[in-house]
Amino acid sequence: ALPSWEIEGMQQRENAKNPKQALQVRRSSLSAWQIGERTAGPKTADLKSAQKHEKGKQQSASDRAGNSTQDHLEQALTYFERGKSSDNFNEVLQKHLATVESIALQRGLSPEGLDVLLNVALSGHLVNTRILKCLIPASVIAESSVVSAVSWLCVGKCSGSTQLLFLRWLIAMFDFIDHKEKLHALYGFFFCSLQDEKLGMQPHLQALLSLYKLFCPELVSITLPAKMKTYFKNSESLWKAAINTIRRRNQGTSPTSQQLILGTGHPQSRKRKWNTQLILPACSTDANNPTRSKEINHADILSHSESFPVEQLHTFSQLLQNIHRLEFPSQMGSVLRNSLLLHYINCIKDESIYLRLYYWMGQTLQEECTWYKLDNQQYEEEFKDFLDIVYKTECFLQEGFSSCEEFLYKSLPLWDGFCCRSQILRLVSWIPLSSFSEMKPHLCEPLAQLFFTSSLYFKCSVLESLKELLQNWLNWHVMQLDVESDPKISPLNTTLSGLVNSVAELIHFVGWIATVALHLENNATFLLYFILDFYETHSCPSLVFICVRIQRALKSLPFVHSFRYRTNLVAAKENELIKKTILQFKFSSQTYQEYNQYIMAMVGCLWTSSAFQKDIHPQGIRLDPEVLKKTRVQEVRNSFNIVHHPALMGYAILFLQQAWPEDKTLNFNLIKGRRWNWYLEYLYVQGLQGLKLFIESSINRVSQVSQTKSGNVQV
Amino acid sequence: MYKFSYGNLKEYSRLLSAFVAAEKQKGLAVEVGNDLGIKVTLSTLLGLKGTDQDQVAVLVQIASRSQLPFENAENKVVWSGWFCCISGDDLLESVPEDFTCLSLFLANGAESYTAIVGSWFQKTFDCYFSRLTISPLNLAWMAAMWTGCKVDSHMAATELVFSVPCIPQSLDISYAIHSEDAKALWDTVQKTPGEVTQEEVNLFMDCLYSHFHRHFKIHLSATRLVKVSTSIASAHCDGNIKILHSKHLIGVLTLLTELAISQIQ
């Protein structure tokens, strides 16, 4: 972007020649300037000469750039700087003014440009109002410009209304000023001007100071009438809309841009209906406290039980110190930006807080949802940002919002799968645990429709978000268990069985869509990765080995994935054993039967070389001999055992090479008898601990010597 | 609205006056209580309820004080708005204590004032304003229901406006019927007096559409109904309402409250 280039260029040239002098001129003028002193004449001239110097440099740089609009801006700035204030109405002035205004509104002005224009505006130029109104920064405002602008106020060359407009501008742009140490030193100047006859203790200055006192009481040294209620006109509205637009254009990721969205501005100049901008409310103290309107209670003063204004809350230690007297802001939506208040929400068990947040978020989500709107381009970015904020808050609180859940249920059927995709899928992962049959029509059906008709990438994203959903449910449940350390029988049973049912149904759903997806995407390995990732994540007693179905769909598993697949199985088996003892949860006997059948099928594949046989389970992997003939895979029965399995064949080859180095033909049939055991040991040494666990827990070797074909299965 | 108290209406009036004056004036801040050119009053409208459980309606009026000294201090109302909720408790679940539920807001006057008043309420009471859009289905219901209402005095024509998306500008078709004819048609359609079903509404509209088609060969059912005007009231899909007959005020407001609540939920 151009502004940053300019700054870079400036710095280069400043370092090149005569930079120190220029800077020193400024610094000396600043240090000589004391609070309350009126300075005029030579100091300001020095400033101006320094600026001319820099302006000249800037102009040459831009000529090199060759950008024509930049040229116009440069010319305009130079003109303003050197022009006399007498010819105010000539065309040249107007033309340059128009240039500056248009560039300001399009891109914002660089710090140097702002510097020049500020000085011009406050030094008595007659078009200063127009100039001040277009002073929109593209990036930051140099503190030195503000300081020099304030010095102009001392000179007294501009009118009172201009001074006031400058103050309004300063308030609106305060966040953009890069450093503020010198500004802090200037507060004394503002306080002195209050005693000035011209300005006087105007209500707006008083109000400004009392507002500031709310934020930083230690900086405001004068006394102000307490509890004074004053309203300012929303002075930022002149600039706010333009600032927002330029932010988006310049893609500013600076922290100041984030702060901006915390506005309370409702642009009034719009002809359309108001409330069109999605703006998170700012944290402001609740003005609607009924105790304020009553007389001051003496007991309250004595006990210092005044509420702590929420604007002053900046650190965690402040939160802890004032937690007993902290009030929530007047608009609950503002907590989304404030992690300290989110901590506070976690502690307080007040229904009205949740209700307020629920109403506000539900309404905002519904109103701003861009796929209901006709021309949604400009709003989509705002909505995406908002969804991101909601997601981050949910991650912070580690639970989902019910208003968000309802929004998803309402809008997923209408979603095109494209708009705000990553945000929506992430929010799906935070849907609170509930009965799956309730969720099914709202979540699963629209999601499945989109899933089957979309790209591979979308499918993987959906699988990932469902994996996260499962993880969140399990985590939440574990937290519940921790909280209720002394579980009562019936709630624990219901929640646990509810959890298991929902989890089981979710896994079943995922298994279904995964299988179909593999067919559709022709067993794409990318997809397979995500599917296996899903199954690897959960560690609850798994009822599903729909993996088996996947195996059936494939004629040969790729190496990596089937390896993981084995570790899945083993991990599940191990966890199931652990959980059984801890939870004393009753699995139905049907579950055990299914489980046993899966184990037998697996063992049949891996060990006893009887793949695809004897499996009466409907989800098993028995295949008719005719089908097997069609696959034209020789020796189907042992094609998946630990020697011939594609995933493990590499190991078998290495083993054979080590055991019979002189034998060039790889005869896998050599691996039997006691060599089978050696091979098994070899595999364990290579790190296949999962395999070891599985075999040792599922297979009971009858004898160490004769083992190849016989193996009993034990659960 | 959170922590809205009917007892504090005077205080709210003062605060809102200052806020409105600050927004309207140029530059200077406004202190509460000073003499301003604007006076805002909040008051209750006691009769505007459907059932006893409904919250009391609140009226907000902005009056500009005349600046000329010799004129009587007759304040001219420049904007008014009211919050109400008519027969809403059937549809809303029980609302907790600190909350006041007034789901319908009607405003009359310049939109800039509506924006100012709305933003003050949002900031102070943590509520949310959204525009009520009326779907063609609901407009058809209104057409049917209002046509069926008995009006003693002179009846204006019943008019339906349809919008057809065209390039470059959308086409508006206005279909006006004598209200006696419309009422006669509705009376034949409606089976049970006092009850209106979806089938009856559809039949009513289909009759009107087929009549139009017979004469103009245009299928109005393929267009979008955007405005309905009857002698009782008129409604536009953007949410602009005109209530013409005071006798049926509560009925119209009940319907609008129902629409507002369904949009919230």
Explain this structure.
The complex is a heterodimer of chains A (715) and B (265). Chain A is built from 33 helices and 3 strands. By secondary structure, chain A is mainly alpha-helical. In chain A, helix 4 (68-82) crosses helix 5 (91-107). Chain A starts with a helix and ends with a strand. In chain B, strand 8 (224-229) and strand 9 (233-236) form a beta hairpin. In chain B, helix 1 crosses helix 2 (111-125). The longest helix of chain B is centred in the last third of the chain and has 19 residues, at 198-216. At the A-B interface, helix 9, helix 12, strand 1 and helix 19 of A face helix 1, strand 1 and helix 2 of B. Strand 1 (230-231) of chain A pairs antiparallel with strand 1 of chain B.
Task: Write the topology of this structure.
The complex is a heterodimer of chains A (715) and B (265).
Chain A lengths: L1 H15 L2 H14 L9 H24 L2 H15 L8 H17 L3 H12 L5 H6 L9 H13 L4 H13 L8 H5 L1 H8 L8 H13 L14 E2 L5 H14 L4 H6 L29 H4 L4 H5 L13 H6 L17 H9 L3 H18 L8 H21 L4 H10 L9 H8 L7 H17 L3 H28 L5 H32 L4 H13 L9 H7 L5 H25 L5 H18 L18 H7 L14 H14 L14 H12 L3 H10 E2 L11 E2 L2
Antiparallel strand pairs in A: 2-3
Helix pairs in contact in A: 1-3, 2-3, 3-4, 4-5, 4-6, 6-8, 19-21, 20-22, 22-24, 23-25, 24-25, 24-26, 25-26, 25-27, 26-28, 28-33
Chain B lengths: L8 H16 L5 E2 L6 E8 L11 E8 L11 E9 L19 E6 L1 H15 L10 H12 L10 E7 L6 E7 L1 H11 L8 H19 L7 E6 L3 E4 L4 E3 L5 H16 L1
Antiparallel strand pairs in B: 2-3, 3-4, 4-5, 6-7, 6-8, 8-9, 9-10
Family (chain A): Belongs to the CENP-I/CTF3 family.
Organism (chain A): Terrapene triunguis
Protein name (chain A): Centromere protein I
